[in-house]
Amino acid sequence: MYCGPKKKGCLCLLSRKHRVHRLSSTEYYNMSGTVNRQKVLQGRKQSLYIERIETNIPSPKTAFIQRYMPYLTYILQHMDVLFNFYNFETAKPKWLNYIGSQKVIQESI
Fold this sequence. Notes:
This protein is mainly alpha-helical.
């Protein structure tokens, strides 16, 4: 399975007959269930204000320690909230997304 750099479509190459089966990105992500799991995760992020915390993280990209300190301070202030959110409950949807993509590949062949 190959999804192009702009993800407009996915190709599944079949080895025996050298056929190419084309799936649109929408088909691929809907078949794998990724879209629904992402909506649920996004809803949890919004209800627990995680989205706001992640949006306001200062950039860590700098060559000066004075500019890195606000990033470090912000992360340390919100570390407990982020660790409580990103636990085994959020690992399960990531695993299911992976399994779903593998199933789509198998079903496409």
